[in-house]
Amino acid sequence: MEEFYSGFAERARDLAEKADPFTRRRLLDLAKRYEARSKPGGNTRPLPPPRTTPPSTIFSGSGEA
Q1: Which pLDDT score, from 0 to 100, does residue 21 have?
Q2: Quick check: is 8 in a domain?
Q3: What average pLDDT values come out for the chain (65 residues) when binned by 10 residues?
Q4: DSSP code for 24
Q5: What pLDDT was estimated at residue 15?
Q6: Assigned domain for 58 exists
Q7: What's residue 30's pLDDT?
Q8: 10 domain residue, yes or no
Q9: What pLDDT score does 54 carry?
């Protein structure tokens, strides 16, 4: 997976060389994000903590259907 993101980063930089200033800035920013993901442990979005108890709304009521 690391090679996948580093390859995307390289492609984004290559495209940025030929792009207008606005697009170049966006592509270089994208390349930075891909490069961060290519590093081990570089997941930029941490997983949410696991839910320990189910929502109380599921179990509210008298129990009769």
Answers
A1: 95
A2: yes
A3: 88 95 95 87 60 63 60
A4: H
A5: 95
A6: no
A7: 94
A8: yes
A9: 61
Q: What gap in Å lies between CA 40 and CA 59, rounded to an integer?
A: 42
- Given this model, what pLDDT does residue 2 score? 80
Whether the CB-CB separation of 57 and 35 falls below 8 Å is answered with no
Query: How many CB atoms lie under 10 A from the CB of residue 19?
Result: 15
Domain membership of residue 17 (yes or no) is: yes
Report helix angle 2-17 to 21-38, nearest 10. Answer: 160
Range of 11's domain? 1-40
**Euclidean distance between CA atoms 59 and 32, whole angstroms:** 46
Structure tokens given for 23: 């697009």
Question: Residues 6 or more apart from 48 whose CB is under 8 A from it?
Answer: none
The tally of domains found in the chain comes to 1
Strand, coil or helix: 26 = helix
